[in-house]
Amino acid sequence: MENLALIESFSEFKDDKFIDRVTLMAILEEVFRAALKRKFGSDDNFDIIINPDKGDLEIWRNRVVVPDGEVEEPNEEISLSEARKIEPDFEVGEDVSEEVKLIDLGRRSILALRQNLIAKIHEHDNTTIYKQFKDLEGEIYTAEVHHIRHKAIILLDDEGNELIMPKEKQIPSDFFRKGDNVRGIIESVELKGNKPLIIMSRTSPKFLEQLFHQEIPEVFDGLITIKKAVRIPGEKAKVAVDSYDDRIDPVGACVGMKGSRIHGIVRELGNENIDVINWTNNPQLMVTRSLSPARVTQVKLNDENMTAQVYLKPEEVSKAIGRGGHNIRLAGQLTGYEIDVYREGVEEDVELTEFRDEIEEWIIMELRKIGLDTARAVLEQDVEDLVKRTDLEEETILDVIRILKEEFED
């Protein structure tokens, strides 16, 4: 009963949800063998019998009987006189099994053993959680907001596992309160100091893809394939879809009548504007489709440096670029081409890069970020709108416009 009473004090492992009976026995034996090795120098001649259901164990030390005065290895040998104190009919050469009580290990050893056992159990739990969530990487998961911090929110699932959603993994319009249920994707799982670090994301393109799998039956069934998805979280996204069944219209099936099917996805993503387009292996046609809703007149590709010159009517240019340059940026990500927009029918125009002597490089790059590559493209914009869409001051923009106008006046 002494061992049973001591094992009862190790109650942390008794109802552990992650440990099956076989694993528990293996951990218990490993911990106790380590304690025996520290105490006696070796554990090779010990038998450990564990009953995890009752929380009890027995430890037996096996030694060989040797004549009195000839004991060389006290852990493995016992003198005849000592053996006969256990059983009076023992003879030299026989094996003696003697039960070792945990109390015999000493109080300090028992405390160390208890801490070691609990540490091993927690380590096993953490490894199990890590493997469980590693298998869920790329999948949608739901958890409840437990704590809101400045740079992240802490979530707990139904099993009490902790997940973290950093600020940069949240959609800009997201607003959470404690107790809210949040859907996101398991983006990454790492072991940090034996503790699993589970990162949830709502900004990953994978989250958008998985929402399509959940909300669109044909995508879930594999009749429609998502070839690629790109997004600017909370603003705009483009999803290229394809179907191997000619009878299915992949875009129509994803969008639904008057947007009925995609509406739930849009709402989940904070009213993110989603363009669904038909995938094609024809790169020219793919560039054309990616710039929707703009109507493209002509596309010239340079596959060597992956650039595309796109020509549109002047009234289509703003559609191709989109608010804040979002449309053209996503089109580039979707196709893999760096897209330059040109106005059809405008004979005289000059690339912004030609003005490097008069306009600083970083200013040119700031304008190109929003799809403005030529002088006329900039001159057609409203100054106030350019201030909003770039990180440039109004004074800087007015100076740029003055330089560009002089070019055409000359």
Automatic annotation (TrEMBL):
Pfam families hit by this protein: KH_NusA_1st, KH_NusA_2nd, NusA_N
Principal subcellular localization: cytoplasm
Superkingdom to which the source organism belongs: Bacteria
GO CC, any one term: cytosol
Entry GO MF terms: DNA-binding transcription factor activity; RNA binding; translation elongation factor activity
Keywords: Cytoplasm, Elongation factor, Protein biosynthesis, RNA-binding, Transcription, Transcription antitermination, Transcription regulation, Transcription termination
Listed CDD domains: KH-II_NusA_rpt1, KH-II_NusA_rpt2
InterPro entries reported in the protein's UniProt record: KH_dom, KH_dom-like_a/b, KH_NusA_2nd, KH_sf_prok-type, NA-bd_OB-fold, NusA_N_sf, TF_NusA, TF_NusA_bacterial
Domain K Homology: 233-306, 307-371
GO biological process terms held by the UniProt record: DNA-templated transcription termination; transcription antitermination
Localization in the cell: Cytoplasm
Residue runs in coiled coils: none
Self-association and partners: Monomer. Binds directly to the core enzyme of the DNA-dependent RNA polymerase and to nascent RNA.
HAMAP family documented for this protein: NusA_B
Similarity comment: family membership: Belongs to the NusA family.
Function as written in the Swiss-Prot or TrEMBL entry: Participates in both transcription termination and antitermination.
Record's protein name: Transcription termination/antitermination protein NusA
Species whose genome carries this gene: Robiginitalea biformata (strain ATCC BAA-864 / DSM 15991 / KCTC 12146 / HTCC2501)
Classification of source organism: Bacteria, Pseudomonadati, Bacteroidota, Flavobacteriia, Flavobacteriales
Gene name linked to the record: nusA
